[in-house]
Amino acid sequence: MAKTSNRVKLKEKYKVRYHARCLRCGRSRFVFRKFGICRLCFRELAHTGLLPGVKKASW
């Protein structure tokens, strides 16, 4: 609850503050800017082949 109230206060103070969130699940940590999704969703979509041009690396 305290975190939510602090977020509301910060929004009033900085009107242009932006925090990246995953478009698919809403997660706020480790979001790829290029794809707009978090690492977990990225992994799921990459394994199912729904992200074109992405393949598992092997060296």
From TrEMBL:
Q: Which GO terms describe its molecular function?
A: metal ion binding; rRNA binding; structural constituent of ribosome
Q: Does the keyword Ribosomal protein apply?
A: yes
Q: Which Gene Ontology BP annotations are present?
A: translation
Which key words tag this protein in UniProt? Metal-binding, Ribonucleoprotein, Ribosomal protein, RNA-binding, rRNA-binding, Zinc
Q: Which GO terms describe its cellular component?
A: cytoplasm; small ribosomal subunit
Q: Does the keyword Nucleotide-binding apply?
A: no
User: Matching PANTHER family, A to Z?
Assistant: 30S RIBOSOMAL PROTEIN S14, SMALL RIBOSOMAL SUBUNIT PROTEIN US14M
Q: NCBIfam families this protein is in?
A: PRK08061.1
Q: What is this protein called?
A: Small ribosomal subunit protein uS14
Q: Origin organism of this chain?
A: Candidatus Daviesbacteria bacterium GW2011_GWB1_41_5
